[in-house]
Specification:
mainly alpha
Amino acid sequence: MSVVQAFPLITVLILFITSFIMPLIKNKNIVKAISLITFILCLIMHIINLKYVIDYGRYFYRIGHFNAPYGIEFHVGIIESIIGTLFMFVSVMITWYSIYNIHYDIKEEKISFYYLLVNILLGALLGIVFSNDMFNVFVFIEIGNLASCGIVIVKDKKENIKAGMKYLIMSCLGSGLVLMGIAFLYSITGYLNMSYIHKSLVTVHENYSNIILITLGLFTVGIGVKSAMFPLHIWLPDAHSSAPTSSSAILSSLVLKGYIIFFIKILYRVFGRGIISNFPIFNIILILGCLGMIFGSVFAIMQRNLKKIIAYSSVAQIGYIFFAIGLGTELGIIIAIFHIISHAITKAALFLCAGDIIHATGYKEISNFKGLGKEMPYILTLFFIASLSMIGIPLLPGFISKWYLALGSMQVNKGFFIVVILVSSLLNAIYYFPISINAFFGEENLKGKVFKGKSKPLKQILPIGILVFAMIGIGFGSSIIIDLIKTGFSMGGF
């Protein structure tokens, strides 16, 4: 067995172990350095692992002395490796940004605790992505749940505590439903290992159709709450908008995606296409995805707070992902994974840009941003480019996703959903374009104000620039990424 096969587990262990070292260190700069270096090291290991999986194929990695189904194992395929690499890349950029900006949002004495939570959260998300054991995933979900709420509440303001408590209550509700679903699966199969559950369900599913229907409902609602599926998203706007900027970026770009990956694994690895095709689950997900695409954008249009606009935009973009899953086809899953990748990078860039704007101006309301592009040309330009992808401008990844979603709709003879895609794109433009237009035009608003946006050094802007550059690269290299995802799916990635 190659040592590379252990890299997914090693990265989880590194993130957990280093997190508990941080509170022991009094120098906050050293804590920041440890977190950033840890993420960079983990990113390098995941890139190597991705190359290994592409060359040699997927594998199962046993953890401990017992083989499956009694022991815990990781399933490492192309798709999991892509997601692991994505998570670490985005976390490196967000942590890099936070080194220079975290003091705006968090008191000095809580910075070590914040980075402890971030490291734990990323370790838990990787565990969710790679674990092939249902209960082990649940444990990682609960660890991530507490860490996610922690990075919201750590700001220690009234609105953060309120938002964090709402998030905690809703997230615990979702976790409870997921645990009930796991219990039902164990009761009819006797296994917790995903592969063995599937083998057992193939044999007995006809005798337990009602239980399977209930279980699918539990997983859909439970994970729907945690991943902000419309209309179960009610915790998201307050949590994402009031959290520290780097926390907002992590929550929207990474945390939501970890739960969606788990949901895809449940549908395709645990149940399988043959079993779930007997139930209306795909149609329900498709409808909820459509509603999220439309109403998420409508709610965003109604907002005036910049971070709330971006937060509601996440509801709409999660709608696109569930829409793709709801198509119930191979193309749908491939585009769902592709949109997870593109949205993670784009939304991280948008939240970091928003944080820089708010830190420089002291304003959160977009009505105060008129003419700001003259003072902060670099940040506003990066924000504008990232927003173009969300709207769906050709060649950018947002357009690629919508193009393939339209093709997928026609593939399953549901071409009328193309209208929903077009309407949602128009709504995206309605709330994103005015921000940039007002920022670059309206210099009269600058009289008597000095924001010092141009004085920000390159090293602080660079992580956002790298994210935007990566987003553009994903758009131009979309065919390569989609082919790689397709190869992973065909090799049994889910």
